[in-house]
Design a protein that fits this description.
Length: 387
Amino acid sequence: MNQAIVVIGAGQAATEFAVALRGGGFAGSVRIIGDEPYLPYQRPPLSKDFLSGKSPYEKLMLRPEAFWRDQKIEFVLGAAATMIDRAARTVSLAGGKDLEYGTLVLATGTRARVPPITGIDLEGVFALRCIDDVKKLRPALSVAKRIAIVGGGYIGLEVAAVARAEGRDVVVLEAEERVMKRVTCPDVSAFYEALHRGHGVEIRTGARIDAIEGDKRANGVRLSGGEHVTADLVLVSTGARANEELAADAGLACEDGILVDAFARTADENIFAVGDCTRFPSRRYGRKVRLECVQNAFDQAKAAAATIAGKGAAYDPVPWFWSDQYNVKFQSCGLSVGHDDAKLVGDPSAPHFSVEYRKHGKLIAVDAVNDARAYMMGRKNIAAETA
């Protein structure tokens, strides 16, 4: 196969796809389109070391510029793709330029889920998904005295840890009855609530937001009961949604993610999709899943490259995730949704413990707090028990 390959999206999935493609011997044209003006970079450090200033911009880069030149991989940066013409096999860019493709790969990722809250557009309200978000947030964070974080998931809690380390007052407003509810069990949620409260963070669960208040600039959040929570900076961290519109407009099936098969193929034989933007069938978990993690970006991209090279195998991973908050490392593998048993192993007060999730007696997920061995053994045992 020696035809032009165009990749829409310039994140980690696009990077790994292009590297794997070249590593597999593909010698044709590879062009990556990115709507940001940056070469591919790591996103997980954005809410941690990059936000805190501990890690410079250069360390975010997945590969140096010279690497891409040597690999003869071309980038079109700062250019948004606006339309896919499947019949003509072209991608239209903002500004009017069209690119022809033989094979198209969608690696469009996700964007911040913006809830329909009154005042969401006020100055002093931020989201955190990309480098430019950090560039806007960091100066405001540096002068803020009290920060309200809407959402108690990974990113919200990681930013809370950074802000508290800088001595700022922080209140986390979580609509559910516990933080991290979507990804973990009550034992782990309770540990993280206690961890943050121990560092001086105010955690408010069951906190429903009516509006972000202020004149031109946010000065706090109004809860559903009428209470005003004062803040001079508001971070909205309520999850992410798949960037699927380009695919849907082209007639490709989407369900909160671009639908692909186990080989990362869409219903169009000339179009693949990889990374956070996809929803794929998992025999291991008995359903279609969409994963927002580095593991999926890398491994699904490799699977797509192998399929294009004629060496494909069905993609059905044991996913893994991590989060660093203060001096505590959280590592998770597998998917705990649907478990019927959760076993606590170890001592949360140490803190050194894990939780094993089982369904019908089979291990399907493990959460580990400062317990790398439990995490590594979990990955191995989940793979064996759900094969």
